[in-house]
Amino acid sequence: MSAPTADRPRTAQGSPGLRRHVGTVGLLFASIGSIIGSGWLFGAMNAAQTAGPAAVISWALGAVMILLIGLCYAELGTMFPLSGGVVRFPHIAFGSTASFLTGWITWVACMSVAPIEVEGALQYATKYAPFTERHSVGGSTVHTLTGLGLVVAVVLMAVFVVVNYVGVRWFARVNTVLVWWKLAIITIVIGAFLLTSFHGSNFTSQGFRPEGWHGVFTAIATSGIVFSFLGFRQGIELAGETDNPRRNVPLAVIGSVLATGLIYVLLQVAFIGALRPQDFADGWARVSFTGDFGPLAAIASFLGLAWLAVLLYVDAVVSPADTGLIYITVTSRISYAMSRNGNAPQALGRTTDRGVPLVSMGVAFVVGLVLFLPFPSWQQLVGFITSATVLSFGSGPLVLAAMRRQLPDRERPFRVPGGHVIPFLSFFSSNLIVYWTGWATNSKLFVAVLLGLVLLAVMYALHSHHEQPYDWAWRAGSWYLPWLAGLALLSWLGDYDGGVGVLHFDTAIPVVLVFSGLVYWYAERVRLPGATVVRNAEQTEQEASLETGTLGAQV
User: What backbone torsions phi and psi does residue 297 show, to the nearest 5 degrees?
Assistant: First the structure.
């Protein structure tokens, strides 16, 4: 990576900007399509194993927490409708140190999503060919890719790149068709399960909350619940490619979470009600049945709904593949945004005549293939992606709070009500989700964060002797390291998956609340001066004008 000599967004010379081809439905469906990926195929069973019938509460709480975060990004996304916004917003408010760290964490998280969606599709497809095989890891069953599975996974990743190379307009059209398909299938599943076999006693026969609130909160972070909702971000990441950001961005972010939240709660109710009593006779943690490598299709089979099972096995390829397609797009846009911020090589910011950041897309493809090796199963990747992505979202509420003071007169087409209430609650929610993920997963995440810090140190050393040293805005970004270190410490002290158990359920939430308040307060104290932010904002507007003026806004 290399840094330029000024703390401002950069444009690769001679390179056209991104095309504004995504309309209202396209942006909304990009978010919905990303939310309804492999998570819906596995999340209901995983959540039931972790929380029992109370998994219904887990889905509802998860939706509320993600909606709080999404509201913050909806305001920011309409203020600055640029591709890769999650990375660019911290750059404007807190400078390059905060921007680099946010970008690194976001990049690590997003690079993992296309591979996990491919793994999810191939796990269901194991019914037809030996793409995966069953293993026991840490007492849990996982399905890892076989040699054949790896070959097919590479082919699917290549297909994602080819579709994206055609251009964002075609991506939006393909995705819209696929989202209609996914919505139809999930609606049919819910209706079929509820009408064919619904055992109301399943919700109470072994207690509604067999694992207490601990199980409810664990399910939110580790069962694929938050992982499923993370797709709302597409409304932000693709904001620079939509024709009417002030209308489309809030609609995509808020509408996608509300719509899919309702769908997922109903799906969980239908799943629990459809189970036979013998399926969880040994306790909810041991829910199992023949063919549970594809749990929803297996239930359809033993209910005698063979036609639905066939549809589900088809959808098990379509849904994850569509989400993987979306994330190849988004990951390349994040690399593009990091290049524009000066936190990555300028080559990543170059686009083709079609307006596609091809170099960024190639990097996403290669790194995605590498990730198949250490994480060869859906189950091994889901917690890592959840924690990493939510951690990257945590900076958004702080940026919003800072900009309320830095840019008080800035036009806000969409404004989050309630002053600091929602930004703080969304920051608190982000920290809770990371904490609930547990130390066993977070330890790997913070190793990845340390690698990012090493890269940051290398970049600083390389550019500290220039005649015009790069302005890293160290003070404005000084809240980042205490935040990350504090979260790592709290996770290690907690009693969730691998923690030492010093913090228990009744003490952890107040401690995380106080910790969140301290970081929130400190970040506001060290934010960039208003004049600097105005300058950064003007440069951001110039870039938006360049992207629109070069290629024109098209529906």
Answer: -65, -35
Min mean pLDDT across 313-327, 380-394, 502-516 is at 313-327
pLDDT of residue 19 exceeding 80, the answer is no
SS (H, E, C) 187-199: HHHHHHHHHHCCC
Answer whether 498's CB lies under 8 Å from 438's CB: yes
In CATH, 24-551 is 1.20.1250.20: no
C-beta separation of 324 from 160 below 8 A: yes
**By C-alpha distance, which of 337, 364, 363 is closest to 349?**
337
d(CA 449, CA 434): 14
β-strand pairing of 140-145 with 132-137: antiparallel
Q: What's the Cα-to-Cα distance from 334 to each of 269, 412, 505, 537, rounded to whole Å?
A: 36, 24, 36, 19
Mean pLDDT over 356-365 rounds to 79
For residue 166, pLDDT over 80 is answered with: no
Which residues have a Cβ under 8 Å from the Cβ of 487 and sit 6 or more positions away? Answer: 391, 431, 434, 435, 442, 515
The single residue listed with the structure tokens 């998860």 is 62
Dist CA 165 CA 530 (whole Å): 40
Burial of 95 (0-12, 13-18, 19+ CB in 10 A): buried
Tell which residue, 364, 344, 329, 356, has the closest CA to residue 10.
344
Closest CA to 89 of 546, 543, 537: 537
pLDDT at 379 over 70: no
Residue 441's pLDDT is what? 86
Domain boundaries, the chain: 24-551
